[in-house]
Amino acid sequence: MTATDPALTALAQGWSALALLHGRIEAHIERALQAKHDLSVREYSLLDVLSRQHEGQGGHLQMKQVADAVVLSQSATTRLVTRLEDRGLLERYLCPTDRRGIYTNVTEAGLRLLEEARPTNDGALREALDEAARNPELAPLVRVVESLNMPA
């Protein structure tokens, strides 16, 4: 295949459309979360991921798992955790069975903020998808996103 190969051009156009859809959705949600809850999309995502942890075997996530879930590097995730901890939304503590491990949990204040922000996040996502569906280039991608039935 060459750089002008139609298959490569189609792939590049598809990737460009996917990146455009992601960017538009993220920007729309970011504006809504910042305006109403003083939260970024990444902060919301981190609170959401950590709120789904549970006690017991495999219940707590390692920092690498958290970083993968919020699509950040481990160092960026650590900085994000620190910011939210400074705001009283997260807390860290040593693993009771492995003193080298550090767990991060959402505080009661963090859980309250997450519950207040969830309708804003969900509404902004719906608005962004509805707007993107009116764009012929993005409409097929919106349909794919809407057809996914993935567990939370």
Could you explain the architecture of this structure?
The mean pLDDT is 90. Helix 3 crosses helix 4 (74-86). This protein has 152 residues and is mainly alpha-helical. 65% of the residues lie in helices and 7% in strands.
Number of helices: 6
Give the strand order of the largest sheet, numbering strands 1, 2, ... along the chain: 1-2
Low-confidence stretches: none
Mean pLDDT: 90
Secondary-structure-derived class:
mainly alpha
- Counting DSSP E segments of at least 2 residues, the number of strands comes to 2
Principal-axis shape equals: globular
What is the helix fraction of residues, given as a range? Answer: 55-70%
Return Rg in Å: 19 Å
Cα distance spanning the termini: 39 Å
What composes the largest sheet? 2 strands, antiparallel
Strand content: 5-15%
SSE string: HHHHEEHH
Task: Describe the structure using short key phrases.
about 150 residues; mainly alpha; two-stranded antiparallel ribbon; 6 helices; about 65% helix
Protein topology:
Layout: H1 6-37, H2 41-51, H3 63-70, H4 74-86, E1 90-94, E2 102-106, H5 108-133, H6 139-147
Antiparallel strand pairs: 1-2
Summary, kept brief:
This protein has 152 residues and is mainly alpha-helical.
